Amino acid sequence: MQPFALKAALDTVRATTPLVHNITNYVTVNDCANALLAIGASPIMSDEPNDVRDIQTICGGLVLNIGTLNQHTIEGMFAAGERAAELGHPIVLDPVGAGASTLRTTTAGDLLDKFPIAVIRGNMSEVKALAGGAASTRGVDVCPDDAVTEDNLAASAAFARDFAAQTGAVVAITGAIDIVADANRAFAIRNGSALMGRITGAGCMLTCICAAFAVANPDALLESQVAAVAAMGLAGQTAQGRMGGFDGNGSFRTYLLDILFNLTGDALEQGAKVEELAH
Amino acid sequence: MQPFALKAALDTVRATTPLVHNITNYVTVNDCANALLAIGASPIMSDEPNDVRDIQTICGGLVLNIGTLNQHTIEGMFAAGERAAELGHPIVLDPVGAGASTLRTTTAGDLLDKFPIAVIRGNMSEVKALAGGAASTRGVDVCPDDAVTEDNLAASAAFARDFAAQTGAVVAITGAIDIVADANRAFAIRNGSALMGRITGAGCMLTCICAAFAVANPDALLESQVAAVAAMGLAGQTAQGRMGGFDGNGSFRTYLLDILFNLTGDALEQGAKVEELAH
Amino acid sequence: MQPFALKAALDTVRATTPLVHNITNYVTVNDCANALLAIGASPIMSDEPNDVRDIQTICGGLVLNIGTLNQHTIEGMFAAGERAAELGHPIVLDPVGAGASTLRTTTAGDLLDKFPIAVIRGNMSEVKALAGGAASTRGVDVCPDDAVTEDNLAASAAFARDFAAQTGAVVAITGAIDIVADANRAFAIRNGSALMGRITGAGCMLTCICAAFAVANPDALLESQVAAVAAMGLAGQTAQGRMGGFDGNGSFRTYLLDILFNLTGDALEQGAKVEELAH
């Protein structure tokens, strides 16, 4: 991937202020809104079935995050998804905790079956569970056995490409090494920080940012998702570099938002560690 | 308005620790609670219809914020509003996203029709939608066409006064220039910072602070709302002045709370840029 | 209590990363998740009745916090509690606002009656309300008449021991002086900071941390709860010491998480002010 695509993808987000409708969990929803604002997008949250069609209509895309789903928000997800599909808006699915409960696995699967999901963003355990694989789980954390490493990178990329081919979605699997793939191409991104697992919401925030990039870059969906994942990873890595001796996850969260807020297309281009993986 | 009224309004909040019952959206609810604590009030949140009458009974006022309403919280809003009205407690309405969906516009209108709302606090697009005007919308953001400017200030103030006369509420319209009006008088407040639009919750926090000021200053409702709006604007402006080169919206949010926490009546008196507008 | 028990209790949390299932209020849920991550545990939130049994099954313990309960989450609490009881997982109950409404008092009482609650963590007004005493209340704050002081310390400790004997739970009553007791022994902890009452969520975060300590230290429940309460108090006290002239409750919240994140067993051992109280 040419560096230019990363810069252009971010610059376009900032130039167009995409309006993103989020049905997401109540744990990290505030961080999600602030992350969207930091990256230059505009968030709106609505999960009431009677409200979501109108809200989706004025937005450019939809996030479906199953982190704290309940019967009512599930209904809202399907109503919003239907409207997004009618309008051709990109839908980004975050299967939080898929594999950890039947309801989560089933709901994520149903959403994927019913709607033309543009992007799936999760950790490897969640994406494997969604793909119908063995559902080892540590709740919302990746199961250590599932972590993407240099050793299993080629196989992981093949899995991502295959799942992309099967679903028609761009598949973004994040962890120590991130993979972003469509049916034909796969990229590894080696930014990030282990501290991102010591705050809640790093994954959820990224999912929302993926939606902003998808809305702003409709003609370059795969590249836009590589850019989104690299932007978040670079922000995490930079935030780690800013940590002083007294700092902990409270400060790390603040730094992460601050860096997303100030991230330029040029800085993303220079800092992103993106490699296209051979078949 | 005499500066003294601003200082007295804030000092009274800090001296009396008003207990404010909030039915508000789950996006910014944590910021709302911390903003109330920062300004010297005490927050309690409850939206369950079976709980809200008891909670409202022990509180001094009620915030109704429609940011993420659902069928269940709407029911809670009406139950709480009824109890607040019985007790003569001030109700502050924040019509978040009115104009963006039928449910939001209708619910805000129904609340306004049914209860003796003391204060309406929103951006101009939301307040216009509530007033039945043309519903241009950018979701929860003000539509650029609706922004209050020096050029349309007199007309905007007249609109605010008219809507106040029609509803019996103090109308607080916030943006680059804030307007606070009752049926007879209107004030412009020129504090604030554009960064307040780059965090989620600046408006929601202000709405809660408006409620705290209303509860603490029952005999000077209009003045108290000018003070609340000026306090938030001054905090935003001061927070912007504290921003360093690496800071973004993460730090801005923290600074905003910190400044509200430390804001004194004297500092408010000195920093507020309040002008009474002629008819 | 030997200092060693405090150090060991925290070290075991960090060594074992207990997975804690939280059904808690939407006001402070983000802080709860970050506090659990800071202390070395792993949070998962789920309140949907159809989801909670599966989630509880993969976790080690359960937090039931009634801060913003509604009919649906109450149902989720009972379903999760049943599963935790089947599995012998510790349940920690936080009766937020018990005494402030019939629904809260009744629900907390029903949970206590139905399940083998391991730990009750609240302020004195809430715990008194739960114990069926006079229900004076300041909403979610302690009523000044109920505050634990040096003058009423012995009587307060006797109350805590009696309530522990009656319920079978460890009782943790937090305030200016904290008390942790089982039926036989009671401890006073004199760490903490008045600033903990100027942020939302200090109590909720502690409740989650109590659960993490209970899960990690099944053979030393009382000691583990003394350690949890001392850890939070020490963090608050240290955070207060870090406050600069411009800092307010925004920064205090960040410092609190940072200090929890960096807190070592040795620092806890050295900083905790724990006294066993004679009968």
UniProtKB/TrEMBL annotation, chains A, B, C:
Keywords from the named record: ATP-binding, Kinase, Magnesium, Metal-binding, Nucleotide-binding, Thiamine biosynthesis, Transferase
One Pfam family it belongs to: HK
Gene3D superfamilies from the UniProt entry: 3.40.1190.20
Enzyme class: transferase
Membership in a protein family: Belongs to the Thz kinase family.
Role summary: Catalyzes the phosphorylation of the hydroxyl group of 4-methyl-5-beta-hydroxyethylthiazole (THZ).
Protein name as it appears in the record: Hydroxyethylthiazole kinase
The species this protein was found in: Gordonibacter faecis
